Amino acid sequence: MSPALNKPQLPAQYVLRPASIFIFIVVVLTVILAIAWSYGWNGKLDFQNSSANGKARIQSAELLLQSGQYQAAYQQLKPILDRPQDPVYRQAQRMQWKIDWTNAMAQPPHSAARAKAQAALALRLDQLLKEGRWSAKDYAHFAIDAQMIGAYDQSAEAWLAVARENPKAATQAMNSAAAAWTANGKSVKAGQLLLQMALHNKQTSLQEDYFIRGLTLIQGGGGARLALAQGEKILSGLPQLAKKTDIVLIMARLALSAGQPSLAAQWLKAQLESSAQDHLP
Q: CA-CA distance, 198 to 213, in Å (whole number)?
């Protein structure tokens, strides 16, 4: 037998063909590109717009804030805050506000540092409110935070924004706005808001409540003459409310306080005539 026939056979070796290698490379690159795109790749080898990366930075800032590292927390947000087109830019703005507010409240009460930090917060909140397009929940947070630092005007503005964004919470929000203005010594503005609430409310009991509260605030801040004029204007749109005895007596007293006894007499006369007609058989 020929020695060549007895030569041991080597196991078959499978070699990838060039076409198979090409397909393999294409598949791998496709997978890599898909993963990169899902993390925010924009085709320019720039991952800074990645929503996942931005959220990670915000979470890191939250952890640093909890440990009192305010500057380090802000540095986590800075790359996002420098890019308004970032998908999580608004979230970073909310986080920045939280950092600044927490830092301000950490300053000693009644100190110069606390006063300076609160003044800076009020200016910052002005900017955020002017930007607009926040959710009702965001506006409510801004309103509460503003009131706690004594920024009552911004608090009232934020509460009114809550009323616009969430009609279901409008009544409570507008009451809170009126309270904020009252706390800031702007009782006339608060009273005018309550009068508008009376005008647009369909429940007679609430109309009367808002009307009386509103007039009381306006009289306290602007005097009887202004309250009388404002009251007459609102009652012209609420004729049924103008017939109620309590309201008539309030308007008559305001007229007397405003030095207009003839007008007070007209109110009382109209009430007596209305009562007489009601008792006719």
A: 10
Higher per-residue pLDDT: 20 or 200: 200
Residue type for position 22:
F
Give me 138's structure tokens: 């965001």
Residue 199 CB coordination number (10 Å) = 18
- What's the pLDDT at 274? 64
Query: In what helix (H) or strand (E) does residue 19 lie, and over which residues does it extend?
Result: helix 18-38
Is residue 107 within 8 A of residue 114, CB to CB? The reply is yes
How far, CA to CA in Å, does 278 sit from each of 15, 222, 271, 274, 275? 108, 36, 11, 6, 5
Residue 92 is predicted with a pLDDT of 95
Task: Give the rounded distance of the alpha carbon of 191 from its chain centre.
Answer: 22
d(CA 72, CA 269): 72
Separation CA 122–CA 92 (nearest Å): 18
Cβ atoms of 200 and 210 within 8 Å: the answer is no
Distance CA 152, CA 20 (A): 71
Cβ neighbours of 119 (radius 10 Å): 14
Separation in Å, CA 271 to CA 147, 169, 207, 240, 249:
43, 37, 19, 12, 9
Q: Cα(148)–Cα(227) distance, rounded to whole angstroms?
A: 30
- What digits encode the pLDDT tens for the residues 170-229? 999 999 999 999 999 999 999 999 999 999 998 989 999 999 999 999 999 999 999 999
* 186 secondary structure, DSSP code: -
